[in-house]
Amino acid sequence: MNVHEYQAKELMRQFGISVLKGGVAETAAQAVEVAKTLDTKVWVVKAQIHAGGRGKGGGVKLAKSLEEVEKISKEILGMQLVTHQTGPEGKKVLKVLIEQGCDIDHEYYCGIVLDRTVGKLAFMVSTEGGMDIEKVAHDTPEKIIKAHIEPCAGYTSAVGRKLGYALGLKGETLNKAMKFFEGLYKLYTEKDCSIAEINPLVTTKAGDVLALDGKLNFDDNALFRHPEIEAMRDITEESAQELEAGKFGLSYISLDGNIGCLVNGAGLAMGTLDILKLHGGTPANFLDVGGGATKETVEKAFSIILEDKNVKAILVNIFGGIMKCDIIARGVVDAAREMGLKVPLVVRLEGTNVALGKKILSESGLKITAAGDLADAAQKAVAAAKGAK
Amino acid sequence: MAILINRNTKLITIGLTGKQGSFHTLQSRDYGTNVVGGVTPGKGGTIHEGIPVFNTTYEAVKETGANAAMVFVPPPFAADSILECIDAEIPLIIAITEGIPVLDMIKVKAALKGSKSRLIGPNCPGVITPGECKIGIMPGHIHMPGNVGVISRSGTLTYEAVFQLTQREIGQSTCVGIGGDPVNGTNFIDILEMFEKDPETKAVIMIGEIGGTAETDAARWIRKHMTKPVVSFIAGAAAPKGKRMGHAGAIISGEDDSAESKFKVLQECGVTIARSPAELGQKVQEVLKK
């Protein structure tokens, strides 16, 4: 789960991590009110969307007067902000964060993430802050310094010293940076983050160490023990279809093709998209109905696929293990009858109770193309989608 | 022979009396697995479907001599159960549970080091040695005993591969689902090493996914150490690049983890690649004929 920058900064404050004073606003008038409370001569107005690259897209601007705060907030609020992470359609800005300006001395990068190869958390820092850090990692990997955290020991000063000295910090600034790292580690582990990224982490002319920006992602599997994080969820940032699917235990991701897919298991669902592409087709979605789906969830899955107007054909690919083929077949038949099937439907069933499942399909009287194996299913679905154009 | 499990495996199920735990334990027993007990705190001393139930894993191991445990405990408590199994020194722990928090698994991974236990999973279909022993949720009837080892990060895609083999009358030595989670107990290389040493295994199917470096690490290991042919498919070539918030995940590995890049490394390392998941059975047939 993602949160906005202003929410991430609220959490950072709770863990003693220095951030600039600021507040969130939904209207230009509110933005001015927030700006008035900040003891500063320049303000920064920052669009709050779940995507990086906001500055380049015109979503972060400097204001030198309260009038400018109002004017810029008006411009940014409601705009369709396009960045390299939003896709070409962009995201509508509904909130802005108003912050005091600061006198930056140097910009650094600081992140915590899981290193899957060793199964440990790792800090990463770099002197090349404020830039596209993926590019830094690719072009000059020596400029990324890593420090792994031993799970039994947690954060220790040795980690902080390694990171701080590598960044060339000393004296009081080094001490402040070490406090910063420790706070970020505590936040990460106590709130079950999956990514914590501060870019840039800055040192100021006044000798402070601050998080100028902050991105936090949280482990969805750990949200059960963090209702306070769950409460920060912004549903306007999430796809309505994906949310609806999630309520039924379905994992759905909308894509831009024309073949609707209903599959059980994430691996087979990915494999189904792959094989459709190999046969010249384009999938309209990824949809994993999971292992424990019922007739109702299959119907729901079907209705979500049919709501997508781009869908020209549907491919159902089920390998029944726990999931029984007859249950899928009943769900498909009922959904198709209820919603009226206007596009060709290709079904490939295999595994537990397959004979019964196939019988239900063939006796339904619906126009269903039965497919033998995986390749056959893909070919038939691609042909059906092309024929329907 | 085969690897990990066989006729001599004595299984206990942690979370035996839950709906899922009970169903799949009975399925495994029907397949021929020697189920000797189960653990559900508070239900110790009772008998569930003919299986003795214990309050703690220590007690279950002491009373039954179990050498394998299958974990079906819900995600919030699963890591705790795995730690209990490690402490009870069970040699093989197979965790089926999906959705264990990553930070919990980091602790489990640390506890496994230097312990007497090997963990398979979590978030996996389990392990099966066809005709001998099944521990997990895979449909037993699609398998047949034979000489192809199967390792996979995905459940249903494993069934797909196994089904293609069985249709061609190519049997399997052992099929291992290592699970799809970012932190797991056993990786591809551990299992490849076992298959390389196993006289019954003549060829191996390795099914990977986008993300992480497990497959490319395995590819490099194969080039150095593996004498048996390996056929591999990587799922996710058509998966869209996610609208991610941060970059940190991609940087840490310092390596391109797309399907395309993994296929390339696998091929360079002498692995036979199947671009389509429908080709796995056929490709194995080809390498076995060589």
Our estimate of the beta-strand percent of chain A is 15-25%
Mean pLDDT of chain A: 91
Instruction: Please name the CATH topology of the largest domain in chain A.
Output: D-amino Acid Aminotransferase, Chain A, domain 1
Can you tell me the residue ranges of chain A where pLDDT is under 50 for at least 5 consecutive residues? none
> What do the pLDDT scores of chain B average to?
93
Q: Which descriptor suits the 3D outline of chain B?
A: globular
Report on the architecture of this protein:
The complex is a heterodimer of chains A (389) and B (290). Chain A has 389 residues and is α+β, with helices and mostly antiparallel strands. Chain A has 3 domains: 1-19 and 103-237, ATP-grasp fold, B domain (D-amino Acid Aminotransferase, Chain A, domain 1); 21-101, ATP-grasp fold, A domain (Dna Ligase, domain 1), CATH 3.30.1490; 239-387, Succinyl-CoA synthetase domains (Rossmann fold), CATH 3.40.50.261. Chain A contains 13 helices and 18 strands. In chain A, strands 7, 8, 9, 10, 11 and 12 form a 6-stranded antiparallel sheet that branches. In chain A, strands 1-6-2-3 form a 4-stranded antiparallel sheet, with helices on one face. With 290 residues, chain B is an alpha/beta fold. In chain B, 37% of the residues lie in helices and 22% in strands. Chain B has helices at residues 19-31, 57-64, 75-87, 102-112, 155-167, 188-197, 214-225, 248-253, 259-268, 280-289, and strands spanning 10-14, 34-39, 47-48, 51-54, 68-71, 92-95, 118-120, 126-129, 133-136, 145-152, 172-177, 203-209, 230-235, 272-273. In chain B, helix 3 (75-87) runs parallel beside helix 4, helix 5 (155-167) packs across helix 10 and helix 6 runs parallel beside helix 7 (214-225). The radius of gyration of chain B is 19 Å and the shape is globular. At the A-B interface, strand 7, strand 8, helix 4, strand 10 and helix 9 of A face helix 4, helix 5 and helix 8 of B.
